[in-house]
Design goal:
- Helix content is 20%, strand content 35%.
- It has three helices and eight strands; from the N terminus they run ββαββββαβαβ.
- It has a single domain, classed as Regulatory factor, effector binding domain (Multidrug-efflux Transporter 1 Regulator Bmrr, Chain A, Alpha-Beta Barrel).
- The chain starts with a strand and ends with a strand.
- It has an eight-stranded antiparallel sheet.
- The protein is α+β, with helices and mostly antiparallel strands and 150 residues long.
- It comes from Kitasatospora putterlickiae.
- InterPro entries: AraC_E-bd, GyrI-like, Reg_factor_effector_dom_sf, SmbC-like.
- This is GyrI-like domain-containing protein.
Length: 150
């Protein structure tokens, strides 16, 4: 089902989008990648991270927040329209690989915490769940959901 991975603490540059989750998130990812490409520092294997801050079952769609992020070097200049920065807390994550389709991601999110207790793991609500889009997996039409655990 999932593997365990230690994700390091890192500096991230991000764009925030408010509104329904879905196609708009992909458009935002392309905007962030275009900005990063203009900076000439991301490599071909740079992963894009997505952070959904709100549960769409409990939050009206028009106020759901989604951050599209890139890990950036500590000395990178990240100025740009709408670009923000923060630190991503590192730690242990349960990583689930899923098909990169809206349907597969929706199914994965609905059963995201299934199986954690079977492995003596618990969700760490102090850190965000990450969607990770690595080029090597996207080429196979796959992506990952990384659940912080302790």
């Amino acid at each position: 089902m999932f593997t365990l991975e230690e994700i390091p603490e890192s500096r991230i540059a991000y764009l925030r989008r408010t509104g329904p989750y879905g196609a708009g998130n992909g458009i935002q990812m392309e905007r962030l990648k275009a900005w990063a490409s203009a900076q000439r520092w991301p490599s071909a294997d740079t992963a894009v991270l997505g952070i959904a801050h709100d549960d769409p079952a409990r939050t009206p769609a028009d106020v759901c927040r989604y951050d599209t992020c890139l890990v950036v070097p500590d000395d990178a200049d990240i100025r740009g329209p709408g670009i923000r920065e923060t630190r991503l807390a590192g730690g242990r994550y349960a990583v689930l690989t899923v098909a990169h389709t809206s349907e597969a991601l929706e199914r994965a999110w609905s059963g995201l915490f299934d199986g954690l207790a079977d492995r003596d793991l618990a969700f760490d609500a102090t850190r965000p769940v990450l969607e990770r889009y690595r080029p090597v997996l996207l080429a196979q039409h796959l992506c990952e959901i990384c659940v912080p655990v302790h």
